[in-house]
Batch of 4 targets.
Target 1
Amino acid sequence: MAGPVVKVSDVHVRPFLPGDRATVRSIALSTAMAGSSSSMFFDGDEFLADALTGYFTDREPESCFVAVLDGEVVGYIIGARDTIAMDACFTRKMLFPLVQKALCAGLLFRARNIRFLYQVMRAAFSGRLWAPDFSREYPATLHINLLPQARGSGLGGRLMASYLGLLRKNGVSGVRMATMSEDAGRFFEHQGFKLLYRSSRPYFHHILGRDVPLLVYGRFLR
Ligand SMILES: CC(C)(COP(=O)(O)OP(=O)(O)OC[C@H]1O[C@@H](n2cnc3c(N)ncnc32)[C@H](O)[C@@H]1OP(=O)(O)O)[C@@H](O)C(=O)NCCC(=O)NCCS
């Protein structure tokens, strides 16, 4: 007699393709506030997706990987092998079009954005956006995000292994990243990262009623 039919999911990690761009942007927006949606703090999806993922998907797509569950992209790791070059590219080529986009779309006049930008400016003027510069010892960076239904089944570890493999192949000496999630911090420690710097950020205070942690993790690759 035949037993119950058990569905076996197809789960894999593969390099990013241009057709994944829209999904990566949508996942970035849905997880932007420490795993929750960006709509809680910002009104302007196109602009925010450009700011969060534009460099990685459009300027360095070869450093991006996606996680696929039953044919759907459910997560990503997006990275930069050299953050000094990334920052230079952002300032020279991406900042002006971004500002133009924000002005043309009237984003600076939307109440949610005014509240958020006010918090960011206050934090900047009181020195609360400062963090040490780790770009010499740890030149690379990354962002990793999975949709809730894809978490906890090994995909995060597989995305990380793909990206670290790419960095090693390119002779990169170290990688660091920042997170606002203590939970994600434990994942990074499990992946061999060490806590380099701990602080807190006040810019979601008007929504959460508390500061969020800022945890910077790093890992040498040689
Ligand atoms: C953080 C995140 C990428 C981890 O991916 P994941 O698929 O859930 O993690 P995995 O299942 O691959 O776990 C890999 C290993 O890390 C461990 N791990 C994962 N999360 C952990 C946690 N919160 N605490 C301790 N260990 C953890 C797992 O037990 C596993 O161990 P094993 O290899 O011995 O079995 C994912 O949960 C996520 O996207 N979270 C929301 C967004 C976020 O916080 N992004 C990162 C910061 S910007």
Target 2
Amino acid sequence: MKIVSIRIKNYRAFESLEIKSIPAFCVIIGANGTGKSTLFDIFGFLRDSLKNNIRQALQIRGGFNEVITRGKEQEDIEIELKFRMNILNKERLVTYLLVVGQDIGRPVVKREVLKYKRGEYGSPCHFLDFQKGKGYAITNEEDFEQTDEELNREEQQLESQDILAIKGLGQFQRFKAASAFRSLIENWHVSDFHISDARGSKDALYAEHLSPTGDNMAVVAQYIYQNHYDIFQVVLKKMRERVPGISQVEAKETEDGRLILKFQDQAFKDPFIDRYVSDGTMKMFAYLILLFDPQPHPLLCVEEPENQLYPSLLHELAEEFASYADRGGQVFVSTHSPDFLNAVSLNSIFWLAKEQGITKIFRAADHEILKRLVREGDLPGYLWNQGWFEGVAP
Ligand SMILES: Nc1ncnc2c1ncn2[C@@H]1O[C@H](COP(=O)(O)OP(=O)(O)OP(=O)(O)O)[C@@H](O)[C@H]1O
Ligand SMILES: [Mg+2]
């Protein structure tokens, strides 16, 4: 899957924001409070809505009135994603629209649509269309030869008006588009890595992917060591190159059957347990485990990866994010680091600027002067420092 555009209305500082032609690797810069975290939170909001319902997803964000753009309390929140996705062996441009509003003080799904074109021409077919808990989904979408009249529309009533239809229907195999979209959202990884969560011994529960907080890092490290030995060696080699002294990292079983990470410094006989290695060492290991994942997430979002890391390491880290995106996982990164941005192509860079409380977005590749300067050999991070990204600085 690849998201190609995002349109947002009335979500926090995004009164009306549209990002078009989104590349596989997308890097967002912007002053404090311009909406970088808010943009990533759109993905988090969808995931939470799917896991529970929109009422709960709003509640953990302060409630509808806190989430909707100030002054727009009488209107609705709209989120529209367009993405390319393989459905029944054909790549389709799918649109997912979600409109959330209030009904007598309760948040409700005012509209939810999943649509895509069945052929080259014609208007997109609505495979799922719901309003306030009622609507239909198409059950024979594989019969693409059928005329619109021959498609089976199955009317459905959801349990409540705050539940997403893609949740209510998604688990049923026959709603192909809905179930594929649902499983993609479930596999999104919005990183919320906490070094403290990654430390300490862990129950050796099976896990192949690093969790958003990183609290299963020891378990995943052991999984990669045991099942993808070559990849683990690449990770180790990079750790040795980037963190002075590190010669080995191992997930060791403790006496009570749990797992703990141990870091060997070549200068000393005994390794350090993760509690006593530096923050940056933990963070670098986490990124390597995340980015060399044998099976990339369809969408990975990471905020400010530069935190705790030595500046000269950021160039290679940015390239590793880009190659993760090349391997099939779309990546969104926010950064305050010119060193990181120096390693990013102009096509990947977007910047946010705020005017009167409302955020606008700009594409670096649409900016003629920036394009010319980079063609002539300038690097984006230096150009950012020199003020060429108009309106980005506070
Ligand atoms: N309901 C709302 N309506 C309008 N603006 C809002 C609303 N809720 C929050 N905001 C604004 O959005 C800002 C939060 O933006 P966000 O956290 O996405 O910024 P950021 O770009 O991640 O900043 P930083 O670089 O500091 O992490 C708040 O500081 C506030 O100004
Ligand atoms: Mg932020």
Target 3
Amino acid sequence: MHKLQRKLQTDHLHLLRLLKCLSHEIDCYDFDSQRSADLAVILSALDYMTVYSDKWHHPAEDIIFDRLLEKSVEQSDLIQALKNEHQTITQETHKIHELFKNVSEDCVVSANELLTSARHFIMLQKQHIEKESEYVYPLMDAAFSDEDWNAIEKEIILQNDPLFDESSKKEYDHLYRFIVDLEKSKQE
Ligand SMILES: [Fe+2]
Ligand SMILES: [Fe+2]
């Protein structure tokens, strides 16, 4: 497997971990929740998705998906739909980020609106990853030669993952510890 494909697949695993954590915090807005949400964690998670997933992961996939489309692979309609979803997800990340920024600035946002929008957003992201993992990523090995990957590599500027890469955890340190502690508490 090419290293770019591996990195993008690792991104998916990381994003699923993050979405689980986000979902756990969003549940605090449910009427019968006994906990209060850690707003810093929610804002940090949405910020990370804006600066890494929406600015690097999806654009990198767009370059790869365009090349798959040139090869007239099966699933072309789905690949096009997933490319369109990248734009939808980016818009939705922005919207939901603004919503929670309003909450942090003490603007009145109903718990119901937060719950509905955030759960919809999480579902959209999860389903997107599932479709890519199941139907699109398995096509890459057969579709791409070394020359294809070399050409793709020239178009994609590699970027560190600012949350999950060992070397660059500082900015999202609180969020990272929160994810790891939550995972530990669920295992116990
Ligand atoms: Fe994607
Ligand atoms: Fe993806």
Target 4
Amino acid sequence: MEQGLKNKVALVTGGAQGIGRAIAQRFADMGATVGVLDIQLDRAEQAAQEIRESGGNAQAFGGNVALRETFTSAVAALEQQHGRFDVLVNNAIWVRYSPIDAITPEMLERMTATGFHSIVWGIQAATPAMERNGGGSIINIASAAGFLGIPGALVYCGVKAGALGLTRSAAVELGPRKIRVNAIAPGSVPTEGVRMHLDDTLTAKRLARTPLGRLGHVDDIAAAAAFLASDESSFMTGESMLVDGGVTHALL
Ligand SMILES: NC(=O)c1ccc[n+]([C@@H]2O[C@H](COP(=O)([O-])OP(=O)(O)OC[C@H]3O[C@@H](n4cnc5c(N)ncnc54)[C@H](O)[C@@H]3O)[C@@H](O)[C@H]2O)c1
């Protein structure tokens, strides 16, 4: 898959850090031109700069994924500059865990807007551009939490289960237009975003019930995204791919 994304143009949301950053790097390493979109514009610019320094093509976009215009303008800019648009990774989300009693309207709105509405707007903006060049691949970063019940994560589990349902519906509707839509469901990957929720006790518990005996690494998720973005997965759509060390299937 070394140059498996050559001549493709991709947009990765939440690309400034963590899993999104690793996906953007991997896509660029495989020959894609990558738009790194994030609400932290300075960090998105830094990520794009580092990708360029490593020999890849990348440009930064600042924007809030909760807003439809963020996607329409980024997709239009990429298509205008590079003549095509092929791959969208819906990765960004704002997350807070909370017991049910302490969920506030602001938490609910911000998590659903960034983790669910964003996928709707991303798909809507990406599909006409993908269709103009004969198809494309949309990858929604869901979570093992979309399959599980995690205490204190009511909204997160619901938003991620929603992302899985939305992936299936989009795949069926967009298949005839040669647009594939798949989801990746990562297990725990200690990124900046996750470290604030994962203390040593919880990490030890998760490790103890993970058959492969380790937490995930951002590159584990980037490798799955690279596969789903490339033509290697050209007969896959509507799929939810667990990349979780086996934890979701374990009864230990
Ligand atoms: N890390 C894990 O353990 C894990 C496990 C399962 C699923 N996931 C999923 O993977 C994805 C990435 O997770 P991560 O751990 O890298 O997260 P992270 O918090 O480290 O990074 C998220 C990125 O999204 C950006 N972002 C947040 N709100 C935004 C907004 N409104 N508009 C644009 N950008 C915004 C942030 O600035 C940040 O760069 C998320 O969808 C997360 O739910 C992560």
